[in-house]
Design brief:
- The protein is an all-alpha fold.
- It has 4 helices and no strands.
- Helix 2 packs antiparallel against helix 3.
- The two termini are 17 Å apart.
């Protein structure tokens, strides 16, 4: 049976691993050249996205990267704090033992919020990718854009809702 701190370390490892994968996706997205006219699949020139979509794309990638990095650094810091507190040379008293648990719970919540925000920003960046490659959502001939965006804006928030529910459940225990 795993101890409480080993479960916490495993959860923190999971946050860092997921953030690493999402950060890789952000970097792949940032290397894509949205200004290349051969990059889009738009037939109707009235549906071509304006340059503000490309600016938003980069901004949302940067916001996403910042959120994932923030979350990972908090999680890594918490893991280090757990390792230090488990060290045989570490002497804790009753106050530190109680505040350690609160610090750990709040830190995990803050790290989860960073991951949650990063996923939201990454989803918004992907919506901009779709608009640049397939046409804007406001265009009359944007059925391909809607077909790509609708699953994204349904599935990602549902997954984030499940994630947030599990985090709040774990936080309350």
């Amino acid at each position: 049976m795993p101890t409480g701190t080993s479960v916490h370390v495993t959860a923190l490892d999971g946050i860092v691993n997921a953030n690493s994968l999402f950060t890789l996706a952000v970097f792949v997205g940032l290397t894509w050249n949205s200004d290349d006219p051969n990059n889009n699949l738009i037939n109707d020139q009235d549906c071509v996205a304006d340059p503000s979509k490309a600016k938003d794309l980069v901004a949302f990638h940067v916001y996403s990267f910042s959120s994932f990095l923030f979350s990972s650094l908090i999680a890594l810091g918490l893991k280090q704090a757990i390792r230090i507190s488990k060290s045989p040379t570490y002497h804790r008293d009753e106050f530190i033992a109680r505040s350690h648990k609160t610090f750990l719970r709040v830190g995990m919540l803050v790290s989860s919020i960073g991951s949650f925000c990063g996923c939201g920003f990454l989803m918004m960046a992907l919506v901009n990718v779709v608009q640049i490659k397939l046409g804007t959502l406001t265009c009359g001939n944007s059925s391909d854009s809607f077909a790509a965006v609708i699953p994204l804006i349904i599935l990602v928030p549902v997954a984030l809702l499940v994630y947030a529910s599990m985090i709040l459940y774990a936080f309350s225990r």
